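Archive maintenance. Older records in this collection stored only the sequence; we are now back-filling the structure field for every entry so that each record is complete. The fields below show one back-filled record exactly as it appears after the update. Entries are processed alphabetically, and Cysteine protease is next in the queue.

ARCHIVE ENTRY
Title: Cysteine protease
Organism field: Quercus lobata
Length field: 434
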Amino acid sequence: MNLLSSSFLITFLLFQRLTFSSPSHTTSELFDTWCKQHGKTYSSEAEKLFRFRVFEDNFDFVKQHNDMGNSSYALSLNAFADLTHHEFKASRLGFSPASSMKLNHGKVQDPGFVRDIPSEMDWRKEGAVTQVKDQGSCGACWSFSATGAIEGINKIVTGSLESLSEQELVDCDKSYNSGCEGGLMDYAYQFVIDNHGLDTEDDYPYQGRERSCKKDKLKRRVVTIDGYTDVPSTNEKLLLQAVATQPVSVGICGSEREFQMYSKGIFTGPCSTSLDHAVLIVGYGSENGVDYWIVKNSWGTRWGMNGYIHMLRNSENSQGLCGINMLASYPTKTSPNPPPPPSPGPTKCDIFTFCGESETCCCARHLLGICISWKCCELNSAVCCKDHTHCCPHDYPVCDTKRSQCLKRAGNVTRMEAVESRRSSAKSGGWSSF
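Back-filled structure field:
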């Protein structure tokens, strides 16, 4: 039984039992079952009680919606059922359209570039869509939308489907984008163009947090693009033409509570057009006379229809449901990808000792100025601390062993500087043991 049907079965059984037992007792049993299903544990009984109260509130919301019986979509107690709506919005969004005028290098879509548009399209069936990914509590939805679009056009042009690195964008694309604090797909496309390519997910895996840019990975230009195109705002016809040609990145409003608890069906709102989330349109279709977009999200497979949502298409609003017609773009590609660079191999400490690729050799013990024992720091071009136990990132090169942190400069620092150094060091993987 898959997660979707399991979630519905649990909810259905609970509804049946509410008639015969006390709601609080039954909901408590459901919460325990839900925790086991999703592998949830809590640090204390107080925390568990708080999450149970949140779960109860979400259950009431889901039940009220589903009991109406006249909606085109259903809600369920999915993986986010123990989060308040505020917590969910704070951790799962990350689209920043307000700064979209900083960069204007993209072409505007030609209204006549597609002649024949099929009645339905699903790029998953064409092998142009990678598996559903999970951004976690990092607001990097923009990077997942961008890589998804690049993965799609790369498959269409070259015949090869490569899962690309969101982490490289989160760590290294800093001209306008802000990692886990939000960003925009056009800026990500421009970064890939300027860098002459993007690395793979396998080589630069996602961490769910910002770290120091692995500059050696920037040279792993596995997939390239030549440019990007912006779909004219509020023009659903042109958006449809674009999706008929390739997967397309879009901004939407994903902060509604119904969106948080969505499970299946054609989502019709309610939602505003205040864009705060980035997703990928991978196709379109119709069901019982109702048109919809096929949208790939980045919240894992325990949300929606195994990570996907069907969103109403051809609504009466020119901005589209949840603003889906307002800010769409896609990468363009005609050039082949470069040949893969040779692997740099392990890092050599001495004639007998090696560390892994992108690691730093640190001397753990020395005698008469000669290192007799090496350890490996899991940071590239790191600074080895004099305590022979820790290392710091190259951009925070001062080891403060008293406060167990890495600093940008030596000497006394203010309290605020120390806090900021600790935060930055943590983001970049600093103060690591070896």
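Update note: The chain has three domains: 3-81, 91-332, 347-433. DSSP finds ten helices and 19 strands in the chain.
Entry marked complete.
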